[in-house]
Amino acid sequence: KAGVTQTPRYLIKTRGQQVTLSCSPISGHRSVSWYQQTPGQGLQFLFEYFSETQRNKGNFPGRFSGRQFSNSRSEMNVSTLELGDSALYLCASSLEGQVAGAIEEQYFGPGTRLTVT
Amino acid sequence: QKEVEQNSGPLSVPEGAIASLNCTYSDRGSQSFFWYRQYSGKSPELIMFIYSNGDKEDGRFTAQLNKASQYVSLLIRDSQPSDSATYLCAVSNGNKLVFGAGTILRVKS
Questions:
Q1: Is residue B109's pLDDT more than 90?
Q2: A88 to chain B: nearest residue by CA?
Q3: SS3 of chain A
């Protein structure tokens, strides 16, 4: 079974621009979560999508948004880029996201390395 | 107090030894616990997960959970140089996973 895929793998943008990142989950997985990883803050949760709906959200400004399509593929958008948005953006998929109230195991994609200049 | 705390290391062990990695968490309601391995420049890779109290073994890896003391540990037996990586502990907090900052493990041959 193919793993989680993310495109593009690397991206360089200028301050003020916007960017869209794409994630295809493992086949059969319906939950997609997005994370930002930086050396200073570590891995931080952005949001989770399930059945085309944002189910959970982390503490990030509204410039960060996402969506999920009927085939469970997900996109993440960052508008008005800032230098501090430079990071590794990771997508992780799981079957349902939660089982019996507990978060399920998540499998990460290779990530998109975003550099904002 | 951070939600999930790990010693940043580096933890250095000789090849063939047991590496012991620890993680403490603050939310008593946490129900699921995960260990990820991350090589430099790569994404995290899931190596163990545990939902209930006690131990779970998978090959050379053992995860131990103590809910009363709010800590999770990962034991790596017969450590190999290829185990050298950053190990991230993740704990459920409400409807999301919270990650620790990671412990760097170095296995010396």
A1: yes
A2: B43
A3: CCCCEEECCEEEECCCCCEEEEEECCCCCCEEEEEEEECCCEEEEEEEEECCEEEEECCCCCCEEEEECCCCCEEEEECCCCHHHCEEEEEEEECCCEECCEECCCEECCCEEEEEC
Amino acid at A4: V
A96 with A25: CB under 8 angstroms? no
Rounded distance, CA B85 to CA B100, Å? 15
Cβ atoms of A92 and A4 within 8 Å: the answer is yes
Using DSSP, state whether B82 is helix, strand or coil. helix
Mark yes or no for CB contact A102/B100 under 8 Å. Answer: no
> Looking at CA atoms only, how far is residue B13 from chain A in angstroms?
24
Strands B11-14 and B103-108, bridge-based pairing? parallel
What is the per-residue pLDDT across A23-59, written as a single tens digit (0 to 9) for each?
999 999 999 999 999 999 999 999 999 999 999 999 9
> Choosing among A43, A47, A89, which should be mutated to test the B contact, i.e. which has the most B CBs within 10 A?
A43
CB atoms within 10 A of CB A103: 29
Looking at the complex, does the CB of residue A86 fall below 8 Å from at least one CB of chain B?
no
Type and span of the H or E element at B11: strand B11-14
Is A103 within 8 Å of chain B by CB?
Answer: yes
Distance from CA of A112 to the nearest CA of B (A): 10
Residues 6+ apart with CB under 8 A from A41: none
Residue B62 is predicted with a pLDDT of: 97
Tell me how far apart the alpha carbons of residues B14 and B12 are, in angstroms, rounded to a whole number: 7
